[in-house]
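Case study 2.
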Amino acid sequence: MDEKTNDLKKTGKMRGIFGSLFPQKYDFEAMLVEQAESTFAGMEIFLQWINEDALTPPDELIRIGSEVDLIRYKLEARLIEAFSTPYNRQDIYTFSRNIDYILNYAVETAREMHAFGVSPDEPIREMSLSLLYGTRHVVEGTQYLGVDKGRVEDSIRKGRRHVHAIEDTYIACMADLFRTDDPMNAMKKREIYYHLRDGGKALRITLYIMHKVVVGLA
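Prediction:
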């Protein structure tokens, strides 16, 4: 038996002893999966709203956003109470917070589009669809955390493609916007584009934390 193998066995034994003395009180993995799935359901409602012929008040989306916030609040409360966690405590918090940001930005986008009278154009639809697909890969990756490293890494790679797509679409649509001769419309749309880009940034951070967790479990 080489030294590395012996060290790994000792580490595993110590983790087993630690786990038996201080068992996890809460299933944080299940809570993260629940939050990711609920966020994805909210993003589906957002896409349905975007594709309506006439944009109605996004009341259903706002309601779902509030419900998903409650899931995050519950996780944060459990995180404070828990003695042990399956992953780094700060990573769990940051992961949960940024999943929440994805839907929060979608909700704010819908509220502002309705309030400002902004109709969805192709860039808005493209970035919204990329956020939906990216969130779906977050759900897939979260479901396999601690179970199948390869599938988590695959979900991360796929999710990152949608992050890049959002950034590319944002740059292209802003370049077009700066060439228009309607400053008021440009100001309104700039707000919408910016919120969707922020959603992409939250998606990117979520995927980064997921990758950090996978590396920590290697």
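The CA atoms of residues 1 and 56 lie 68 Å apart.
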